């Protein structure tokens, strides 16, 4: 078994590309080996600014010989067909083999492919790897670059080391031939270094002031930065990304501590940290929890003076950068945030949604509504509206122009410096949060109102103009906005109907103004749906009917834009539901239980919905829940087999074409009322069996209890009421023949099962639950 070393040396590779390059090198090498029939363990890969390296151990000396079969014509095919096959293979007729293919004798050319020396395989693989390398950005160089067919590489390729057990694997790429010679540190070592093989590669380069292992360099930088900070009585501000970046910039890292002018500390600490990090790749330090006038740079050489000259040069560069930042800070504060906000009229938010100033107006109205309605408890409506008006003002400041990462944060500082209320400043600072999963979720009332309004407006606005995510594309980050909204609602237990908020802001988009009609329309919709459901109709049937006949149902609402907006709100609610399912699945909630609650069709309060889901999950995990689910599925299967919908199904069919007719048509009302009376009638044409009577009696008690508990949001109580059905339904199946010969008995018992199913479905759609 042999060990192989490959080093591809070039000019400086950008630090941000090195991790991907290591992964690509390992992948491409493995693909080449597997294609040649060589199974290998995962190779080791390394990178420095000037080289990519790979070590693959325990390679065989030769590939194994293999037989290759090539299918030809049928054995009794015409002579011309067989002769053509023989010419293509170079074989004689008697060298072909006959094999059975689906009962038909067929000719095959079977040839033995001898094994190859692995060095030959590697010699072909190295140029293929180099030419196939998928750099995010690459270049051509030299005279050959005149041709578009020339090699592209991240930076000019200058050397290849390819050694198999110490022997050079000969190959050539773009005029660069492989060998055993590499170079050490650019400044600390001169001359060539001859590598003996995979075992002495890292050792010989270390002697030449190159640490090949990127992970080792990262560890050295992290420890060294902590040590120099501690020696000065400071605490390093942790920054893992900066550690990785500095490791990608150096081959012999030396962390050094320097100081800057203390006067710069008057600038917000986030500005100083970003200036040091983004422009110079420096770490910053703290003293007693506050930013200190110190920085740590990572040198790539050992200075003869202990690094003093290096630190002094870096200090001067940082001072110039901090001076710029202080200038931006002072210039921006010459205007109030309200004055800065006037510039938002010049920034287009989206061609169909107007300017950022237009968005700000919508968000301010929605934030005030969330506060006034008590949806965000404790939020002052005036402060919420003021904060929303100023939240985006820093987008036109010099500071955000230089450091886009500071949007929101620097606005909070400007608000506080201007003397605005702390709640307003905090809301401006934090209104983008949470940006992703795991990030801090705001809880300050004014901040919550502004943050939620901002995200709901984005969602409703883009859906209103039919700009929604498709497949993997989400250019406006609407999936993230939905997840962030869910986090805000859940963390703060906000109780409100999402469609009302979506209708208000989307109507503003579609018609250029907030309309009372939006809320009136939602109120009527909710009222009608609940009336339909109370009368026993299936809520999903009702919703489908409403979607199909919006123009007729709401003909008095002449605003065409609002009708379109309402139709798209349904799509947005579906989208929101999908995000909630994903978020809850990640939190360990079964997807089928979420589906079971969503299938009710009239749940628009996330806090209540999740409370119902959690209660359902607990119930289904219990013995009573599991057995009730089994009984439910048995009842549902019987009803499906008999195509039996029960009285509830008849009521749903009564209003199938127009669900609202159940509300508005006196004749249909009478029909439904009669059927509802029949549903609760105990008058039978026969004496029910004991198990049958027991189920009827328990249903009479459990149905109203479960319904009352659900209305009171006591979902555990609702599940307990359903649990009382377990024993009676089990006994019913054991002792009662459902499909009796007597038609009255059969009808009553099927209706009883339909009633049992409806009682359970009123709490959650158990047909969606797996098990």
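Sequence proposed for the structure above (771 residues):
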């Amino acid at each position: 078994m042999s060990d192989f070393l490959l080093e591809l040396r070039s000019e400086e590779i950008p630090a941000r590309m090195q991790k991907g390059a290591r992964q690509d090198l390992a992948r491409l090498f493995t693909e080449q080996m597997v294609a040649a029939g060589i199974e290998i363990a995962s190779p080791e890969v390394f990178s420095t600014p000037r080289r990519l390296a790979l070590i693959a151990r325990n390679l065989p000396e030769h590939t194994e010989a293999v037989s290759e079969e090539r299918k030809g014509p049928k054995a009794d095919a015409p002579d011309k067909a067989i002769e053509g096959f023989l010419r293509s293979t170079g074989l004689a007729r008697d060298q072909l083999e006959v094999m059975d293919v689906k009962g038909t004798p067929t000719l095959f050319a079977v040839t033995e492919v001898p094994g190859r020396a692995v060095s030959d395989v590697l010699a072909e693989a190295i140029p293929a790897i180099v030419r196939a390398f998928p750099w995010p950005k690459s270049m051509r160089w030299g005279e050959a670059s005149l041709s578009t067919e020339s090699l592209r590489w991240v930076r000019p390729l200058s050397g290849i080391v390819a050694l198999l057990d110490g022997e050079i694997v000969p190959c050539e790429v773009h005029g660069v031939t492989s060998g055993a010679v590499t170079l050490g540190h650019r400044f600390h070592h001169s001359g060539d270094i001859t590598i003996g093989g995979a075992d002495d590669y890292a050792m010989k380069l270390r002697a030449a002031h190159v640490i090949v292992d990127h992970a080792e360099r990262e560890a050295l930088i992290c420890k060294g930065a902590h040590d120099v900070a501690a020696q000065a009585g400071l605490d390093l501000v942790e920054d893992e990304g900066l550690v990785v970046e500095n490791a990608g910039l150096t081959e012999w890292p030396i962390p050094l501590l320097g100081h800057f002018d203390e006067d710069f500390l008057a600038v917000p600490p986030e500005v100083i940290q970003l200036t040091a990090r983004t422009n110079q790749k420096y770490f910053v330090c703290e003293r007693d929890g506050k930013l200190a006038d110190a920085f740590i740079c990572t040198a790539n050489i050992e200075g003869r003076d202990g690094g003093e000259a290096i630190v002094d040069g870096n200090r001067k560069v940082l001072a110039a950068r901090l001076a710029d930042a202080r200038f931006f800070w002072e210039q921006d504060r010459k205007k109030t945030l309200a004055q800065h906000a006037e510039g938002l009229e010049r920034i287009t938010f989206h061609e169909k949604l107007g300017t950022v100033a237009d968005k700000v107006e919508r968000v301010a109205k929605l934030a005030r509504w969330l506060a006034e309605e008590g949806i965000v408890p404790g939020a002052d409506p005036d402060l919420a509206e003021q904060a929303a008006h100023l939240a985006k003002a820093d987008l036109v400041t010099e500071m955000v122009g230089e450091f886009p990462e500071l949007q929101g944060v620097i606005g909070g500082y400007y608000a506080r410096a201007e003397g605005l209320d702390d709640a307003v400043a905090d809301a401006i600072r934090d209104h983008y949060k949470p940006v992703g999963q795991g990030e801090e979720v705001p809880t300050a009332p004014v901040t919550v109102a502004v943050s939620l309004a901002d995200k709901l407006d984005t969602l409703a606005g883009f859906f209103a103009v039919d700009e929604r995510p498709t497949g993997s594309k989400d250019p406006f980050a609407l999936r993230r906005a939905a997840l962030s909204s869910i986090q805000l609602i859940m963390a703060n237990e906000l109780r409100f109907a999402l469609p009302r908020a979506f209708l208000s802001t989307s109507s503003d988009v579609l018609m250029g103004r907030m309309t009372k009609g939006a809320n009136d329309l939602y109120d009527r919709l909710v009222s009608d749906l609940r009336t339909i459901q109370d009368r026993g109709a299936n809520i999903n049937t009702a919703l489908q009917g409403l979607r199909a006949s919006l123009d007729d149902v709401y003909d008095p609402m002449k605003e065409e834009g609002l009708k379109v907006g309402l139709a798209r709100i349904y799509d947005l609610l579906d989208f929101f539901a999908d995000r909630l399912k994903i978020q809850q699945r990640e939190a360990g909630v079964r997807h089928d239980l979420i589906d079971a609650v969503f299938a009710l069709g009239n749940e628009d309060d996330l806090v209540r919905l999740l409370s119902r889901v959690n209660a359902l999950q607990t119930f289904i995990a219990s013995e009573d829940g599991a057995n009730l689910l089994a009984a439910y599925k048995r009842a549902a299967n019987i009803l499906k087999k008999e195509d039996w919908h029960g009285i509830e199904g008849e009521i749903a069919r009564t209003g199938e074409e127009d669900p609202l007719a159940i509300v508005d048509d006196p004749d249909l009302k009478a029909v439904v009322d009669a059927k509802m009376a029949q549903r609760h009638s105990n008058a039978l044409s026969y004496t029910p069996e004991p198990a049958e009577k027991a189920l009827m009696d328990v249903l009479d008690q459990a149905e109203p209890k479960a319904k009352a508990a659900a209305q009171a949001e006591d979902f555990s109580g609702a599940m307990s009421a359903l649990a009382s059905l377990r024993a009676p339904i089990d006994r019913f199946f054991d002792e009662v023949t459902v499909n009796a010969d007597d038609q009255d008995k059969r009808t009553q018992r099927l209706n009883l099962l339909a009633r049992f199913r409806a009682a359970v479905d009123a709490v959650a759609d158990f047909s969606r639950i797996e098990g």
